[in-house]
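Q: What residues go here?
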């Protein structure tokens, strides 16, 4: 479990490619290394990965086909930066919102609006079936960052970024066309899906009752 508060950025120092498999070696910030062990969970751009090797501040993580298909991690090259967050502990402050580290899809940076001390990023969702979970003022995970949703259209939404977010994460370097990992808020998804099921059940019951009423006695 994660909170969506990025603890630092790491640098990809090595990429090992195999068929439908990839290993990233990340140079981790010193502050994130204490008590890090094999098997620990670390979010990379919001995607939960498992530590497979530790050599000083160089930490390895493996990715399988499904991870590479759903996220932007397969596009990373040596020298690229990645947002990092270690798994939350029960005593940690939840400054963002609870996140699972399970990316549902990527969105494309469609527009960037910059003004003094502010930046607005519009994201285009290629999988519009997820738009029903993206609500104005709701929570969303953007490359592992807990953010509040701004305006929403049929296939796009925006987020507003303060200078601190731009300084501490990789969002300050994003350009048009870049892919961003998306994790929808699980509580929002549960509520929306439950309401849909209840409404569908009621509609089915009403349709059955209407059909029964039309039957000749």
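A:
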């Amino acid at each position: 479990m994660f909170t969506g508060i990025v603890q630092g950025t790491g640098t990809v120092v090595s990429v090992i490619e195999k068929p439908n498999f990839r290993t990233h070696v990340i140079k981790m910030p010193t502050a994130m290394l204490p008590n890090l062990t094999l098997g620990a969970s670390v979010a990379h751009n919001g995607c939960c990965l498992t530590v497979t090797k530790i050599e000083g501040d160089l930490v390895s993580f493996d990715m399988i086909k499904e991870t590479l298909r759903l996220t932007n991690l397969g596009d990373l090259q040596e020298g690229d930066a990645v947002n990092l967050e270690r798994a939350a502990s029960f005593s940690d402050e939840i400054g963002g919102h609870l996140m699972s580290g399970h990316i549902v899809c990527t969105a494309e940076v469609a527009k960037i609006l910059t003004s003094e001390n502010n930046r607005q990023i519009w994201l285009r969702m290629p999988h519009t079936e997820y738009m029903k979970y993206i609500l104005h003022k709701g929570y969303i995970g953007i490359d592992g960052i807990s953010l509040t949703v701004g305006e929403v259209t049929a296939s796009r939404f925006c987020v507003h970024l303060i200078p601190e977010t731009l300084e501490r994460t990789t969002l300050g370097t994003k350009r048009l066309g870049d892919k961003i990992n998306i994790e929808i808020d699980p509580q929002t998804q549960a509520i929306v899906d439950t309401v849909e099921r209840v409404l569908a059940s009621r509609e089915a019951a009403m349709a059955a009752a209407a059909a029964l009423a039309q039957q000749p006695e």
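A: Context that may help when evaluating the design: Helices lie at 65-70, 163-168, 186-214. The mean pLDDT is 93.
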